[in-house]
Amino acid sequence: MLDRLIGFLSSGENLVFFVFSLVAICGAIFMISLTRVVHMVMALALTFLSLGGIYITLGAEFVGWVQVLIYAGAITILMIFGIMMTRHRGEAETEPQRPWHNGLLLVGAIVLFGILFYVIQNATITPQSAPVDPKDNTLQIGQLLFNQYVIPFEIMSVLLTVAFIGAIVVAKREED
Amino acid sequence: MSITPYLTLAAILFCIGLYGALSKKNAIIVLLSIELMLNAVNLNLIAFAKYGPKPGLAGQIFSLFNITVAAAEVAVGIAILINLYRNRGTTDVTDMDTMKR
Amino acid sequence: MEALRLQLSDLQHLIPELTLIVTALLAALLDLALPRKVSRSFSAWLTLLGIVVAICFTALELNPEEPIQLLAQSYRIDDFASLLKLVILVGTGLVVFMSLGSAARDDIHHVGEYYYLFLPAALGGMIMASSGDLITLYVGLELLSITSYVLVAMKKKSTESNEGAFKYIVLGGISSAIILYGMSFLYGISGSTNLLAINSALAGSIDDVKGLVYLAFFLLLAGFGFKIAAAPFHTWAPDVYQGAPTPVTAFLAVVSKGAGFAILFRVMYWVFGSLTLMGTDLQKDALLSLSVLAAISMIAGNAMALRQHNVKRLLAYSGIANAGYLLVPIATHFSLVHYANYSEFLFYLIAYLFMNIGAFAVLMIVQRSSGNEELRGFAGLYYRARGRPQRPCCSSFRWPASRSRRDFSESCSSSWARCRRNSIGSAR
Amino acid sequence: MANDFTSYAWLVPLFPLLAFLVLIAAGRQLREAGAYISIVAMLASFVLALLIFFERLGHTTDYTWNQLKWLTIGDFQLNMGFEVTNLNALMLVIVTLVSLLVNIYSKGYMHGDERVNVFFSYIQLFSFAMLGLVISVNVLELYIFWELVGVCSFLLVGFWYFKPEARAAAKKAFIVTRVGDVGLFLGMLLLFWYMPGHSLDFSAIHNAFSQGKIDPSIATWIAILVFVGAMGKSGQFPLHTWLPDAMEGPTPISALIHAATMVAAGVYLVARTMDIFQASPDAMLVVAYVGGFTAIFAATIGTAQNDIKRVLAYSTVSQLGYMMMALGLGAATAGIFHLFTHAFFKALLFLGAGSVIHAVHTQDIREMGGLAGKMKITAWTFAIGALALSGIVPLSGFWSKDAILSAAFEHNQLLFWVGLIAAFFTAFYMARLFFLVFAGKPRSDAHAHESPAPFTFPLVVLAVLAVIAGFVFTPFNGWLGHWLGDHAEAETANWTVMILSTLAGLLGIGLGYVMYGKNSVSRDIVAGNAPWLYTLVYRKYYIDELYDVVFVRGLRLIGKAFELFDIYIVDGIVRLCSAAVVGIGRLGLRLQNGQVQTYGLATLLGLLILALALAGRRFFHLG
């Protein structure tokens, strides 16, 4: 067991993965277990950051940086902003006592994970070609976005506009 | 390195995100947990983009779209929450039960 | 790589979508530019105009010589898509028409936005109806969903509206994540986001990844089941329907649900049910699962509607039951002889569109006069408003009536027959 | 060949149907007009029937119209329509005539009854059904009208539904005839199965059976099953028990339905499908013996009954037995002829009995007596009817009974003697009836007087017919036989039979006169010397009691078991379903507690359960 773990960790990529995944899981678990909302958000920002790291090791530099910028940056900041807007004191959260709900939820989440784990362990995915490590990841993504994926890209612009207008309209303070 | 550890990590994050979304009482954390679920999906996609049957960039592009959509969703979600807070004075998910049965 | 470029000439097939985008932008800019004193009803008329033009353009695309496909099948304009687009556009148009005049009374503060936001929502539905690619599909779905979240929250001073919108966005977000998770597995199995490529990958070798395929199927089923409000993924519907402004409720019940069915149909038919997979365990299980979902929806929706007093919630439960009925043609076995189940599905959807919008229109009128949404507000309607009560009657009786109409009942019975044959086959 | 009127034969049943619809629609508003509407409608039918009858006098070919497409099952097509043969034409006249007279009579008899229009509407419906039955073109059509006739009988027997006996009698009539109908239905199914081209048309049946295309053993089965149907309707032993009880209905109904027309439908059915019977000698034998036994069996019971209508009812059963016996012996013309004459004199007797009952308000003959002086017309016409029934020269009953007896004499000596003894008993109980009712001194203080014209007019008409109807078919005049197309009929006068039957009749009348007219022989001679025999006959051979023990109690036990099954299993399932629906609704609504996280949890659990249940079974090889 330990031999395999050491063998696993002896590869550089594996070691990076191990560290990042440990941080990501810890961040997620802290989000669940911490009591102050701001702490929870910060813990999850850690998860987002480490995920960005994993993306970069997987050869997706552009997505990795986007992850860091948007999740760790924008979304986390937005969340903290939301906390500021809605809650003035940073007192500790007391989670509601719902034994039935929490019990069933725990069972459900564990069963779901069990199924996922079973299926993932039993699947054998064989690459038909070796993993390519493209030199210019960002350039290629840009080319694809403006050619093959131009329709969803344009729709995305509409979506962002809508979200922009919608968020303003909904959050705006009414004068009356 | 095989793909299984990545998928397993994604599954762990997805389940934690789901648990958080359905158990936490603060509405912001609920939204954040949903983002965690989406992140798990992105990890899945990027791992498949490298170690999948046909390595390519489609997975990465998919995850880019996801990130964008998630950002838009969070923006709208926070906006709704702010408005709700203005009306009800609470961000407690369990307090939101004026409509039932 | 060169072949996958969108040519300028391809844009002619996208004119209906472009019309909506242009109209929405125009309305948004006008809304910004004009002073506050100007009545915002111009926005409604502009929206309606855009929809009508889009309907005309869509109608011109009907019955093409062969289905038009753009960008390697990622965007398809076939008759199924065009007809569904017509349903979506007509439904949206009727909803906008319905809210003319009621918007101000419903204490919606941003009337201009309220109207033109229906356009991107309809656009999302149209994209869903046409897409043959997971990414396009998902983006269209999210465009529709996010716009719907905003629309539900439009009654800003109403706690119920806000609360409904928040519930909608939380559960919608979870379901989006579930759908995406399923899609990511589909991508992982096939290495492609194209529905046809996924299908051929599934037909090729699924034994190694059988678990992943089933996992993806059930995740997608749950996610789409949520979008169409099929039991047991329906729980959001009553609260959201109750909270939303009534025209938006009608929009959710008709357009959003129709678009959800479009995407369900595309994915279930192209990925899990197409001819290449005919007779495999996977296809049988997929159709069986859909049948079970249909049965649960019909039973649960109707049973819960029996004990409901709020009319909007009642209509939500009825929508759940109708999701079950609409699932039947999708869930039935199809064969070489009967390849296009979507004719039955579309027929029912069209009937459902008109009767539901009719019901909601009457609900709005009653709501205005009685001041609440309770069922008892309808009592004595016959005496209070002679001539008017025929309308809810007509629209609610269209349920059985449309089912008994000849061609529909035939197709329904043939669906049933196939359903039964299917279940017998799987029992063997 | 002119078919001017024949082609409009479908109008004959239509008039009563129209009258029925008008009466049902207009209901109480019509008051007295209802009777007139009925009479006019029946008159129209009668006139048309008479015209058809005269038009057909010279013909022997049938008129068939069956273009009304009714059912198409694969290649098989069932057409409806109507058919007029000479037999049908005769039946049309009989039915419309008797029905017309009964309608007239009822106007007087039912006067003052609150539901008189309902009564007339039922009669019209019955007439429609009976006439439709007569002109039916195929067996299925006949069967439909057959059941409709049964329904009308049920309605009319139970017309005075406030009397428990009437209710019981209606139920009994319906159920017992249904037993026979099941037989007819099975026979029809067999016929459908084995007929070439699955045709049910009478003409096709005629062709198929007369050309021997059907296996004789199958023919036997079909014939027996059809006969079971006829037994039920015509009150043949052992399905006769309903007919006497049916006398609880209004007397005009007893005359119309339970004497002249509906009960004759069984005889008509056998005559109509004679080809089937002729294809099977065994079936013929069964028909003959059942008929003969019924004839003597019912006649003996008739001698001991005290209810005026019951005596006539047993007499009807007995006479129907005669007809069946004739048919079984192959003497179809004789059977139909007896049906023809019997319709008149038995209707006459019933209407006369009704007149008497109307006058004295009792049905018990022991409480009557000496009515001859007070009710002259009734007494005379009743006497004519009784004599005709007893077979006294030259009244109609003599000729028809003689035709049957001479057929029996030639083909089956045993049945001849049975018939002769039955004739004796018939004469005896009719004499007993007549002398007890009309002769002697009044035994009650009722102030009887002659009934008004609506009563007496039909009586006179029927009496005339009872006298003369017999001359259409005598040993010296075989017209009816020729016309009905039965060439096998012997026309030579059989003097032995004539003398013997006359003797039997006279002997019976004489004995009746001696016992009940002159009182020179004690009435209790049988009851005193052999009380068991008297009791046996008086209690109708305990048939009802036997049925009660064997069938009714047994069925009631089974019914009880089924009732328990119904209460606890069927109702239980129904209750379970409704409870399940309510439960699902309640459970589903409890889920809607307004908590968004509960909703999400429900979605998650729903997904897991669905996935585990549906995919798990394939994945973990659980089944």
TrEMBL record, chain A:
Protein name in UniProt: NADH-quinone oxidoreductase subunit J
Assigned protein family: Belongs to the complex I subunit 6 family.
Localization (cell): Cell membrane
Lipid bilayer topology: Multi-pass membrane protein
Record keyword Membrane present: yes
Chain ranges passing through the membrane: 15-34, 41-58, 64-83, 103-120, 149-171
Predominant location: membrane
Entry's EC annotation: 7.1.1.-
Free-text function comment from the UniProt entry: NDH-1 shuttles electrons from NADH, via FMN and iron-sulfur (Fe-S) centers, to quinones in the respiratory chain. Couples the redox reaction to proton translocation (for every two electrons transferred, four hydrogen ions are translocated across the cytoplasmic membrane), and thus conserves the redox energy in a proton gradient.
Organism: Gordoniibacillus kamchatkensis
Catalytic activity: a quinone + NADH + 5 H(+)(in) = a quinol + NAD(+) + 4 H(+)(out)
Entry keywords, A to Z: Cell membrane, Membrane, NAD, Quinone, Transmembrane, Transmembrane helix
NCBIfam families registered for this protein in UniProt: PRK06638.2-3 (NF005168)
UniProtKB/TrEMBL annotation, chain B:
Subunit structure as annotated in this protein's UniProt entry: NDH-1 is composed of 14 different subunits. Subunits NuoA, H, J, K, L, M, N constitute the membrane sector of the complex.
Swiss-Prot/TrEMBL keywords: Cell membrane, Membrane, NAD, Quinone, Translocase, Transmembrane, Transmembrane helix, Transport
Catalysed reaction equations from the record: a quinone + NADH + 5 H(+)(in) = a quinol + NAD(+) + 4 H(+)(out)
Known role: NDH-1 shuttles electrons from NADH, via FMN and iron-sulfur (Fe-S) centers, to quinones in the respiratory chain. The immediate electron acceptor for the enzyme in this species is believed to be a menaquinone. Couples the redox reaction to proton translocation (for every two electrons transferred, four hydrogen ions are translocated across the cytoplasmic membrane), and thus conserves the redox energy in a proton gradient.
Identification of the protein by name: NADH-quinone oxidoreductase subunit K
UniProt EC number: 7.1.1.-
Top-rank taxon: Bacteria
Transmembrane residue ranges: 6-22, 29-49, 61-82
Protein localization: Cell membrane; Membrane
UniProt xrefs under Pfam families: Oxidored_q2
InterPro entries: NADH_UbQ_OxRdtase_chain4L/K, NUOK/Mnh_C1-like
Family label: Belongs to the complex I subunit 4L family.
Topology within the bilayer: Multi-pass membrane protein
UniProtKB/TrEMBL annotation, chain D:
Coiled-coil segments on the chain, per record: none
TM segment ranges: 6-26, 33-54, 87-106, 118-137, 143-162, 174-194, 253-271, 283-304, 311-337, 380-399, 414-440, 452-473, 493-516, 596-615
InterPro entries for the chain: NADHpl_OxRdtase_5_subgr, ND/Mrp_TM, NU5C-like, Proton_antipo_N
Keyword line: Membrane, Transmembrane, Transmembrane helix
Residue ranges annotated for the NADH-Ubiquinone oxidoreductase (complex I) chain 5 N-terminal domain, each copy included: 70-120
NADH:quinone oxidoreductase/Mrp antiporter transmembrane domain boundaries: 137-426
Record carries keyword Membrane: yes
Pfam families, A to Z: Proton_antipo_M (PF00361), Proton_antipo_N (PF00662)
Descriptive protein name: NADH:ubiquinone oxidoreductase subunit L
Membrane-topology descriptor: Multi-pass membrane protein
Protein family membership: Belongs to the CPA3 antiporters (TC 2.A.63) subunit A family.
Subcellular location: Cell membrane; Membrane
Keyword Glycosyltransferase among record annotations: no
Organism in which the protein naturally occurs: Gordoniibacillus kamchatkensis
